[in-house]
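G., the chain you wanted modeled:
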Amino acid sequence: MTLNSTIDRVTERIIARSEGPRSTYLAQMAAARAQGPARGHLSCSGQAHAYAASGGDKDRLSAGTAGNLGIVTAYNDMLSAHQPFASYPEIIKAATREVGGTAQVAGGVPAMCDGVTQGEAGMELSLFSRDVIALAASVALSHNTFDAAVFLGVCDKIVPGLVIAAQAFGHLPAVFLPAGPMESGLSNDEKAKVRQQFAAGQADRAALMAAEMAAYHGPGTCTFYGTANTNQMLMEFMGLHLPGSSFVPPSAALRTALTRHGAQRALALSALGTQYTPLCDILDERAFVNGIVGLNATGGSTNLLIHLVAMARAGGIILDWQDFSEISDVTPLMARVYPNGLADVNHFHAAGGLGFMIGDLLQQGFLHPDTKTVAGVGLGHYTQDPIYADGTLSWKAGPTTSLNEKILRPSSDPFQPSGGLKRMTGSLGTAVMKVSAVAPEHQVIEAPARVFADQDAVKAAFKAGALTGDVVVVVRFQGPKANGMPELHSLTPLLSILQGRGHKVALVTDGRMSGASGKVPAAIHVTPEAVDGGPIARLRDGDMVRVDAVTGRLDVPGADLDSRPNAVADLSTVQFGTGRELFTMFRNTVGPATSGASIFGG
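Predicted structure as tokens:
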């Protein structure tokens, strides 16, 4: 099938734009690769330190002829998505011994949950935790005793941070091993209803707690299609997961079999193996374009517009939001998974999941078919389903038709002809909107602005009955330089209530709105941010703001914003407590959202 002309054109533009930094990066990886297996260059004393606690693996490690696998883990048992990783190191070590290799836990990285910190001070560390994870993973691998690596991580900032670090060691092969989603509990739709009832004072806290506990009830990733599950999709579309592995639950025997095979596969891809495939050869410009197509076809998280840009830059690839927008314009929306629909990721997986979607998109020319992956050359591997029977792991051809077209449709009959993301520009700057769950009648809003400096002030105004009629709620001083760019997802219930009363409602913010943003139009990641003197800093209550997701415009008709002074917020209260004082350097050096909101040369 001929590659779609827009996909081809955007890919070539990215390749041309990235030529300089990408060439420099690949030269650095070639130099690292030429040195051979890293631990052979260590002193005897250094090697003795590295092997001292390795028990029966010492002889193979000191011989230096068998591959040694580094495990970088985001395990903690407070977060359901990462709790299953407790058993992974021993599973991985046993699997590598079976093929004559060894494995060591290279180090751990922090893993925080945006669900736990929603609306709390800790949320202001969330985005920065991605770059902390990249730094921590780099420290773990800096001992140079590994021939390949496996990365254990799932959620919002963890996978992007691990990918950034993996690219710093891009001469090594890398396989990402997921934990899978928790089993379905209380439906996401029912959970959302109880949240709205609580926000409206129609349900008490006991009812809210019961609903939340019924929804989040066991090990595994949250089952809605937010940032965590969007990460898992991307790792499959970009070739860093084993085919079909993203949404296998933690308790399944298949999950363990995939973990074992992933460890063995990483060693086979090393320079001491038979199919040397370093990560830098997998994550090229085409792989990132495939990821952007997957993001749009699934209606994935808006957070990935920031993360994919930062991930790409770590490998010398320069993406911009226009690339996302043009790919979105031609990519069919094939999935309806909450918050874009009622189904969860388990239902999506059962309907045919990523294998069906990748196969269809390949057939229709929306994906680069010949990218390198951890499964071999060609994305066609990812149309297959893993099978574990009689103690043997194998793959078979996946479904070529959807098993539930209320959840998953072919590209020839999509839920909508364009993807789930929209770039917006205008007199307020540049922003993005996730439109896959926004009904057509809500995609164009022109209403008076109510301007707030934080989300608590919005909640107070709502409780006081001060938000009436049509309104564009503006929450500024929420960008990365101001306070770390927290998600404002806790505003969703009250904005949904206002919309449900028949009012035209939209949100405009230089903060984030999360992968769970839904039916209320939200122009987010506004750049330049308010603290940088962006136009959003000059808005006033009563200004008419037009949020137009159809044409991609974000404007203040009739207002001369340039003639006004910038508002100045008191940020002193958000710069200490809950560890925030330790992140002053991050706030002072972070780049804008358009370049990945990163401290790494944004």
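The chain has two domains: 5-183+218-397, 421-571.

Shout if anything looks off.
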